[in-house]
């Protein structure tokens, strides 16, 4: 078979075998509805409770603070719209950033149409918010701050503890999208001062279509899915038991050897970044040099077009992403790369390679071998590159 190298772990991850094995009985053998009072139901209620408790422990959260959702996007929608609806009589101002995932950004834009005022904070060249600008943006009618934990495109990790402290000082609810951070960073919600947090299972080797919203006890929030009394009357709908069980197992595995996992990713990522930087002129790393996700390598390659690069990489079996998976298909450059100050041209020549648990040294070396000649071939078609090269 042709060699295939998957370097798009930020888009999604394969499920671990242990996760799949744990889930399988819940599709047919142990199929009861957790709300039923008979033993079929009760067994499944305890399976759901067990997963909830496993996940709560990884976050230093209470079991009654974990609410399962249909994924990270739903959790983001709920956290933001739910707080906006609960607190709109108190104020209608929300603070977020220009580099959020679309699940946050588009939800904020929806709120704007509904009469809310949203401040989109700028970031510096590394994608980091400035704490002074956050403080300056706070108004008497600010009800919510929603700032992502770690960026899905460039990997930058925000100063969450500082943001949490400011939110607390000003008595503003603080939501964070931690979908990318979970499993890669140790998260203690109490220590970090987080009120609401979105997570998703399929980014940590769990199943797709399951996520959660952490809601700190006492936080004012309305439901967005109305119906039955599931999730303590806050998120209706029969529980996706197999997925919840899988999420619990994936969380357990992720935090069992997190240090080892992070070290492995950082080693391979640095090998990749250094290897590419050595072999390809006119490239640079996007995102923060140190405060970044362990598996993230996002580089801008001048004088090439990212989409063409992705297609040529695909032909040699390498799966990466240009900018964000969510914007691929559109010709607009990534909002994140624009926010860190790249020009349209440079943003279009950007490549995101994200490493995960199944990435090997051999995979990385294969990319370091394949990418430079592809870049060189694409650059030959660039009149600008010919000029720069000629001038050297
Ligand atoms: C993937 C992702 C989401 C969306 O999660 P889904 O479970 O796919 O809906 C939200 N935020 C970030 C930062 C992500 O990376």
UniProtKB/TrEMBL annotation:
Domain Aminotransferase class V span(s) in chain numbering: 5-367
Originating gene: iscS
Assigned protein family: Belongs to the class-V pyridoxal-phosphate-dependent aminotransferase family. NifS/IscS subfamily.
GO molecular function term, any single one: cysteine desulfurase activity
PROSITE patterns: AA_TRANSFER_CLASS_5
Function: Master enzyme that delivers sulfur to a number of partners involved in Fe-S cluster assembly, tRNA modification or cofactor biosynthesis. Catalyzes the removal of elemental sulfur atoms from cysteine to produce alanine. Functions as a sulfur delivery protein for Fe-S cluster synthesis onto IscU, an Fe-S scaffold assembly protein, as well as other S acceptor proteins.
Active site: 326
This protein's UniProt keywords: 2Fe-2S, Cytoplasm, Iron, Iron-sulfur, Metal-binding, Pyridoxal phosphate, Transferase
Protein source organism: Alkaliphilus hydrothermalis
UniProt-recorded name of the protein: Cysteine desulfurase IscS
One Pfam short name: Aminotran_5
